[in-house]
Design a protein that fits this description.
Helix 1 packs across helix 2. The protein is built from two helices and three strands.
């Protein structure tokens, strides 16, 4: 008599549940990472436009505000961007957290830290 192989119904339900948890997490995190890519793109294009233009912190924030409005970025505002003096210009740093509700009162928290240096 040959021994049967395979997964039982309970095993399949457990595997489907675990796969469902990972799929749900991916669905909840996708908008957060898409928005981060918009923030990254805004910082890079702002750097490209303002490098060498002797722009100050006010001009940097205005340029970021325009890009955030175009890209519909809502998790961070230009007021939250830290602008510090650097050796050759300004260091523009977007350091923020974004969270998404996962299941019930459980949340997924993602920490982002992106910086670019705008030369004078």
């Amino acid at each position: 008599m040959r021994k049967q192989r395979g997964m039982t119904l309970i095993g399949m339900v457990i595997v489907a549940f675990i796969a469902g948890v990972f799929v749900l997490a991916a669905l909840r995190l996708t908008p957060i990472y898409l928005e981060y890519m918009n923030v990254d793109s805004a910082l890079k294009s702002m750097k490209r436009d303002l490098d060498g233009s002797n722009a100050g912190p006010g001009q940097i924030r205005t340029a970021l505000q325009r890009r955030f409005d175009i890209d519909n970025v809502s998790s961070i505002s230009p007021r939250d961007i830290k602008i510090e003096r650097a050796a050759n210009g300004y260091l523009v740093r977007a350091d923020y957290e974004s969270r998404a509700q996962f299941i019930g009162n459980l949340y997924l928290l993602v920490d982002f830290d992106k910086s670019v240096e705008v030369a004078r």
